[in-house]
Amino acid sequence: MILRKKIASLLLVSVLCLGMAANADASEISETEKKAEELENQKKAAEGEKASLENQLNGILTEMDETKAKIEAKEIEVREKEEELVQAKIDENDQYESMKKRIKYMYENGNSQFIEILCESKSIGEFLNNAEYITTISQYDRNMLTEFQQIVEAVAEQEEMLKTEYAELETLQDSLIAKQEELNQLVEGKEEELKQISADLGATQERLAQLKEAAAAAARKQEELARLAKAQAEAQANAGSGGGAGAAVVSGNGMFTHPCPGYSRISSEFGWREAPIAGAGNNHKGMDLAAPTGTPIYAAAAGTVTTARYSSSAGNWVVINHGNGLQTYYMHASALYVSEGQSVSKGQNIAAVGSTGQSTGPHLHFQVMLNGTPVNPRNYL
Ligand SMILES: [Zn+2]
Question: What is the DSSP-derived secondary structure letter of residue 292?
Fold first, then answer.
């Protein structure tokens, strides 16, 4: 009874342990899920930033196009102003030349000093300065020449201004190009970041899938264990209350299924041993499996029940004939669920563990006979 409780609590502990492992897995799953979510958010943010940078870049490109058009227009203006200046200088010079002719005509017989001043002047400005002293020069000519000179100055000033504007536009274009390069680098950096995030996300999702698969496998195992524990508890309850046989259980892949699965502790091996009751040693013909009273005993293989009765030494015992000279013996049972002449299938619940007959405690004596000679059961399990 104590042993049964001990085993039941051991089973409970193992179910609990599995549950704790499942909890640990569950917390790692939720952590990994959280990480994947964070990475998704990071990815979205980076994509948003990249789109915004590309928008800025498009804005810069538009501005560059506009500036380029302005530069081209300014170039035309500068060229036109240059032509205007050339013409203004021609006009000024024409006026100067015709003025000189008129003055020469007016004074060809008069003041030779004045003619000298006129001819030695190296520029119109110098001439006008020298002519300050010459009151005889016609007011009309003076006015005309000054006017033309002012036009030349104004046009030159305008040309200078246009060239300044042109230079400003070029500076603006240069700064736009620099900004474009900077934005291109930022977009590239963002793309690199996105690549890294995507790789991390992929790895995290893969890990998550693995964890979920492991958790599912653990859950399946736990379910299986719980099912086994329940079946065993039911079988024990049935055996304890003197009820009928439990469900069939086949385990392992040996020729024989284990007659008491889960109870692999051998209290006595096959072969020579000191007899527990008699003083002298004897040859043990089977193996003793320690198990609580009521533990289900399963048929090692399909066959016909040839013995199912009580004897003073074997207690309640069963013999199954499997054909080909092979028989199995099950001894000391507390209950028998089969009768002589009955066919049984492999793993069928044929009896329950007990301590009937010559026995020092609840156990199953399992014996295999080949052509009437006991052989080691281990060779068949
Ligand atoms: Zn024995």
Answer: -
**Locate tokens 């190009």: which residue?**
177
Name the architecture of domain 266-380: Distorted Sandwich (2.70)
* Residue indicated by tokens 């979205």: 44
CA of 335 to the centre of ligand 1 (A): 17
Domain ranges of the chain: 2-210, 266-380
CA–centroid distance, 245 to ligand 1, in Å, is: 23
Give the Å distance between the CA of 66 and the centre of ligand 1.
104
**pTM > 0.90: yes or no:** no
Specify the residue for token string 């089977």: 286
The token pair that represents 290 in the structure block:
């320690």
Structural Rg of the chain based on CA atoms? 58
CA of 331 to the centre of ligand 1 (A): 8
Is 368 in a helix, a strand, or coil? strand
Ligand 1 centroid – CA 283 distance (Å)? 10
Tell me, in angstroms, the distance from the centre of ligand 1 to residue 284's CA. 6
Average pLDDT over every residue of 154-168: 91
Distance 313 CA to ligand 1 centre (A): 10
What would the mean pLDDT of 197-224 be, rounded to a whole number?
Answer: 89
- CA 125 to ligand 1 center in whole angstroms: 142
3-state secondary structure of 287: strand
Distance CA 359, CA 206 (A): 58
Identify whether the C-beta of residue 249 lies closer than 8 Å to the C-beta of residue 296. Answer: yes
Angstrom distance (rounded) from CA 227 to CA 138? 131
- Give the distance (Å) from ligand 1 centre to CA of residue 269: 8
Minimal CA–CA distance to 259: which of 139, 158, 349, 161?
349
Host H or E run for residue 271 = strand 271-274
Dump pLDDT digits (tens) for 251-280.
666 788 999 888 877 877 787 665 555 444
